[in-house]
Amino acid sequence: MNMAAGVQQVQPPQPPAWKAALSMMMNPGEVVKRQMAAVPWPFSLSISGTAFTLFFLQTGIDMLRSGQLEVSAVALMAFLGILYGTLGIAAIAVLAWVLTKAAGNTYTLGWTVSAFALGYSATLVYAVIGLICSLVFGWKTAVAFGVTGVLWALRPTIFTIRQMTSDKAGLSVAIATLCGAILLFGWAMLGRFGF
Amino acid sequence: MAKRKSKHYDFTPAYFMFAIFGLMSADTTGGEIDITRTLIGVAIALVVAYLVINLMAILLNGANRELRLEKGPAFSKVMVSRGMFYMLPFVILAALAQYVLGWNTGMSFASAAIMTAGASAGMEAMKEGAQGAKNVLIPTIVGTLASSAWMLSLTLLP
After folding, report:
1. Chain A residue numbers touching B90 (CB-CB < 8 A)
2. What residues make up the domain containing A73?
3. Predicted structure pTM score
4. What ipTM was assigned to the predicted interfaces of this complex?
């Protein structure tokens, strides 16, 4: 509260974390600017962790159906998804935090990890829909839903990095490209692990 | 002194990025180039670029009449031009995915790129004084519809 001149100014209440997660899909810029402080990083990492778990699970199910994997390997892929969606995304966030420090980034590491991870809200939605289609209709959904879901997460990532660099366009694009490339190549390497 | 953003617009980089996506959309054979298919793919991409850029500019103008009168007739085009810059990460990543990892996912990247460019254009407009989330939602919807139409049009490729 601002007590200046004896006038109390009450900050508007922050929406709950789950609402911020939904808003991140449609208007990530607004969430990153005004709502991230109220979203705890464990909640955000649970979003990205679940998204990648379901995505890797779909990949495993597709490969199980085509006879390329056994059930135990599918479980292993799901576990890899948990690791990638939590530790992997957190590591990328830490890298971005370090790189933006030179641009005067004043956000905490916790805020950064939370913002990066919450950006995978849309990925989670795509992963859930893809898994339902896979289990109910027997479709091969890993590539179609997985790629689209991960690409939707790049948009909030770009907005997060813009916020951290105080909107320096060139630096934001460079760091976002680097983070995206690490994500893609890490995902490709883990995908080969199942072969 | 803070760097002032340009009041001019230049869509050449945006058209170039769309052309690269057009090139990728035509190359589904892992590197073998079919000239006819490539030319048609690039032509379709440039038509989509023209429509997206101008539609976004017209709608941003329509949603912010007072701001347009204050900032001048080029206001919305400057915003769209700035927003289009944020397609660049998607172009680079799409090229890496297609030509290094061997994934045929160019159009997925193009779709995400257009929507991000639209949302970025809206955010640029809001920084200049535009009010309301409509400035982000309208360009994003334009981007969604345009990329869907683009994907359908690829069925015309020989």
Report:
1. 151, 154
2. 38-192
3. 0.86
4. 0.85
